Amino acid sequence: MEELDALCPRPFALFFEPPSIDDRIVNQFAFFSVMSDAKATMDHWLAEHPGLARKIVIPAGLKWEIRDKLDQSNVTERVLFPGLEGLTAWLKRHYSPKEEDRAPRRGSRRSGIEVSRGLSD
User: What gap in Å lies between CA 112 and CA 12, rounded to an integer?
Assistant: First the structure.
């Protein structure tokens, strides 16, 4: 930790690719993040650097459309979570009725995906 502290006097975020020790890490193309200072939080650091992150809000009404597109690209629970956990999650989703097939909820509406700069929006 002392070497990390010596790199910069202010807290910073460090992102690194973990070793590919299991299929889940490999399939998720995972990156880990860590703050250089144990007292610093990622939320506070991102608020101080608003141009570095985007918050993407996907309306509930688009959930199944996006899920279908991810399925077409083979981004499924079976791939992201290898083993029985992913298979059972995929089977449950695949064979459950979609929310759009159920009665619409009061006040629900279909709108586009909201993308905003920073995470404070």
Answer: 34
Question: What is the rounded distance in angstroms from the CA atom of residue 85 to the CA atom of residue 45?
Answer: 34
Instruction: Give the count of alpha carbons within 13 A of 49, CB side only.
Output: 11
- Cross-strand partners of 114: 57
Distance of CA 120 to the CA centre of its chain: 17
Can you tell me whether residue 107 is helix, strand or coil?
Answer: coil
State the DSSP H helix or E strand holding residue 117, giving kind and residue range, or none if neither: strand 114-117
Which distant-in-sequence residues (6+ apart) come within 8 Å of 38 by Cβ?
A: 1
- 109 CB neighbour count, 10 Å cutoff: 9
Contact between 28 and 80 (Cβ < 8 Å): yes
d(CA 82, CA 92): 15
Element (H, E) at 43: helix 42-48
Tell me the two tokens of residue 12.
Answer: 């910073």
Q: What is the pLDDT of residues 4-44, one digit of tens each?
A: 667 777 888 888 887 877 777 777 677 788 888 888 898 89
How would you classify residue 64: left for phi > 0, otherwise alpha for psi between -120 and 50, otherwise beta? alpha
